[in-house]
Amino acid sequence: MALTLYNAPQSTCSQRVRFVLNAKGLPFEEHRLDLFAGDQLKPDYLAINPNGVVPTLVHDGAVVIDSSVIMEYLDEVFSEGPRFVPADPVARARMRSLMRFIDEVPAPAIRVPSYNLAFLPHFQAMSEEAFRAMAESKPLRREFLLSMGRTGFPEAEMTLAMKKLEQTVVRMDEAIAASGGPFLQGGAPTLADISVMPVIVRMDDIRVSHLWATRPAVGAWLDAVRAQPAFRPTYYSGSLLTEKYPHLREQLAAAC
């Protein structure tokens, strides 16, 4: 068995897959791509992932792309360690409904504050010509980057993103209450928990945890996720935005 993961430390989609690999105790070779250097757009990478995004898993020569697909693939193929897909068909359907919501609502929403707070200085340092060329080269992120521009997303976009993140917190709180917690579907984490984990960790890292200040079950959920043995190796040094970007850490500290 040979597993190779192409990913990036701060990529929320990469963090999902790293968690599953670590939780199952699966040895894997990790290739860390520098997204700002354009590693994900180089011909050799596009040959295995034409979307030009991370992560990509290669298992004994077979290529699997898209983080949600990779997670389900790993749980299906490898019986080692914990199972993250419920055996009961109804519970499994609920998990997939949650995953669909997470992929459509908070996963794209968290990119807006992330780019405005952490990544914008990188783009501001580019010429307009270089920025547009970079945006045009992104198969899946072209419109997103062009809407941001070199001045960042406007306040209206930030407000909408924050509303979607707040909606996510409410949805999580309701799921935990219905299942009895501490996880979204009860006493053990599923792929739904792992899917939303990087969003909530990112929200905590950029100091918007006030969105669950009145919902202690979500705070307890985060504590339970962090207590999982796979969490620490997944979030190795440099995986948080505040670890990677000193200006962000200083900016957030000054705002407190």
From TrEMBL:
The keyword Transferase applies. Keywords: Transferase. PROSITE patterns: GST_CTER, GST_NTER. Residues 1-82 form the GST N-terminal domain. One of its GO terms (cellular component) is cytoplasm. It comes from the Bacteria. GO terms for molecular function: transferase activity. Residues 88-248 form the GST C-terminal domain. PANTHER family: GLUTATHIONE S-TRANSFERASE OMEGA, PTHR43968. This is Glutathione S-transferase.
